[in-house]
Specification:
Layout: E1 12-15, E2 18-21, H1 25-45, H2 53-73, H3 88-103, H4 117-142, H5 147-170
Antiparallel strand pairs: 1-2
Helix pairs in contact: 1-2, 1-4, 3-5, 4-5
């Protein structure tokens, strides 16, 4: 089998159901998800410690789900029965986010991306997830997509923020607060004065 096909030498690529220009918004959307998946893979190489077994396993699951989401976005002819990314993947991320928020130190101000190398890589992945989300929103305005992909990527960026903080906490590395940040995050509801 040859890795190259020469079919894309004129600036076109094949999708499920047709061919489009390589800079088509649909290609940008799933291409950005592929970039996101690569940064997650890079972060996983920095998380091969028993303290991070849970996060490592979750990220591996997420890598498969990102392939599913990219596959769904690569379809020109839309048939919802063929969609791979389902709503339960979003619910799972929400459950994990809730758990990690409880584990991480209290957050009141914006933080700077960074800390440990693994957390810094996760922060990069988080920003790529946000870019993927913006690209998917643009695609959704122009064409029909699996809406679960947009919701998933939105929730994934929150998940990545949460685990970046937990990674730093487990390594005893403090998050660096943005020094001009006001108090923007508060746990629980504020009680009215009586």
């Amino acid at each position: 089998m040859k890795l190259y096909t020469r079919t894309g030498d004129k600036g076109k690529t094949s999708l499920v159901g047709g061919r489009v220009d390589k800079d088509h918004i649909r290609v940008n959307a799933y291409g950005t998800i592929d970039e996101l998946n690569s940064f997650i893979g890079q972060a996983m190489t920095q998380l091969q410690d028993e303290r991070f077994t849970d996060i490592y396993q979750e990220l591996e699951k997420i890598q498969h789900e990102l392939f599913d989401g990219g596959s769904d976005l690569a379809r020109v002819k839309i048939d919802p029965s063929n969609f791979k990314l389902k709503e339960d993947t979003v619910t799972y991320l929400e459950e994990r986010i809730d758990d990690y928020i409880e584990e991480a130190p209290k957050l009141e101000r914006f933080i700077l991306p960074g800390g440990s190398p693994a957390a810094a890589t996760i922060h990069i992945a988080r920003t790529v997830a946000r870019r993927a989300e913006r690209t998917i929103v643009t695609l959704q305005r122009e064409e029909t997509i699996n809406d679960n992909v947009l919701t998933y990527v939105n929730r994934l960026s929150d998940y990545l923020f949460a685990i970046a903080r937990v990674i730093n906490a487990r390594l005893n590395v403090k998050d660096v607060e943005y020094e001009r940040s006001a108090l923007v995050f508060r746990r629980g509801k504020r009680k009215d004065k009586e």
